[in-house]
Specification:
The chain is mainly α. It has a domain of 56 residues. It is 50% helix and 0% strand. Helix 1 packs across helix 3. The radius of gyration is 14 Å and the shape is globular.
Length: 82
């Protein structure tokens, strides 16, 4: 019996929006993340924005500090549809 895996909610659009509003390229953002103790490369971060990789909570905590925003900004529009 084959089981289908449901696709999880994706916050990639919110990550991209926050980065764009801040005026940062993926490279500059990753450099800032690394300065703050998150060893994230540009290719990994691109996968977060594309929804190909789930982002770790520690990265969200650091991004919140960089963007000076609320955690709600990362989850806008991600209400579960039943």
């Amino acid at each position: 019996m084959e089981q289908k895996i449901r696709r999880d909610l994706n916050m990639g659009d919110n990550l991209r929006r926050l980065r764009d509003v801040s005026g940062l390229s993926q490279e500059k953002l990753c450099a800032e993340l690394q300065r703050n103790g998150c060893d994230i490369g540009r290719s990994t971060y691109a996968k977060y924005e594309a929804g190909e990789l789930n982002i770790r909570a520690s990265v969200i905590v650091t991004l919140r500090k960089i963007y000076n925003c609320s955690y709600d900004e990362f989850f806008l529009g991600l209400e579960v549809q039943n």
